[in-house]
Amino acid sequence: MKSFEEIYQQVTLLGEKKILAVAAAEDEPVLHAVLKAKELGLCEAILVGDPEKIEALLEVLGQAKAFPIVAEKDPAEAAKVAAELVRNHKADILMKGMVDTKSLLKAVLDKERGLPSGSLISHVAAFELPDYDRLLFVTDAAMNTYPALKEKQGILSNAVAFVQSLDIPVPKVAVICAVEVVNDAMPATIDAAMLAKMNDRGQIKGCLVDGPLALDNALSVEAAEHKGIKSPVAGYADILLMPNIEAGNVLYKALTYTTASKSGGVLLGAKAPVVVTSRADHFESKVNSIAMAVLHAAKNQKEAK
Fold this sequence. Notes:
Blueprint: H1 4-12, E1 18-23, H2 28-39, E2 43-49, H3 51-60, E3 69-71, H4 75-87, E4 93-96, H5 101-109, E5 122-128, E6 136-139, H6 149-164, E7 172-176, H7 187-200, E8 208-213, H8 215-219, H9 221-226, E9 239-241, H10 245-258, E10 262-268, E11 274-275, H11 283-304
Parallel strand pairs: 1-2, 1-4, 2-3, 4-11, 6-9, 7-8, 7-9
Antiparallel strand pairs: 5-6, 5-10
Helix pairs in contact: 1-11, 2-11, 4-5
InterPro entries: P_Ac_Bu_trans, Phos_Acetyltrans/Butyryltrans, Phosphate_butyryltransferase, PTA_PTB
Keywords: Acyltransferase, Transferase
Pfam family, one: PTA_PTB
């Protein structure tokens, strides 16, 4: 899939609508996005939170009876209730509403009521860029601050499985650094070379990995050729594995605010995808994130059967 429109089309062909469990759903921008997702045929939802506030917001949005509501006024407890709905297969995807991310993650990782899988939790963002012939995935711009080699392997694994669920069977992964050569004064370049070698030896499967690669070499065939880099990944990357949260977050915001891009993001590594959007995210990005999560959940559930 090369665009969000293709993702939307694929979701509408699923036949069975997936269900969002929205934690602390008394959040107008989130409700607006969830209503739009329903209108587009992407999903249904169960809203967990303060029923009076939720009903008032739905009334303002002209959809007073759009979704069932589970009453829980405490946001942290609402996150646990929503996670439990997904755990018990009454919903398929968890979505953040008016609850802080820390409380949501605590609910996700709760061993009794949550969605722990034993895997690393990481974030992947997808960007549809003008004049770019494919979706570009950036990871991790939101969760893991300064991942070591083991954590980078987990982030990579999550992103590859996610991208494969979007019908990209062998994604190309560029491990991004400031330079394209190994330099012992720059630990990220050593990690990149090790990940590439692990992929060569079959320790990392289902993708092609190369690194270290500077951003220009990952995205531009001409830049890679100019520097004499011969690689099936250089210039053709699907996934950009960033060295740390600072680099990832800067790239994420640069693409968001300086390009006419479309974007969406999902938390991975739990037993079900988690949609965590910022209040600063564009409305369209929230809907895109829901669509991505729905398709990923559907593919995972199909494989599990």
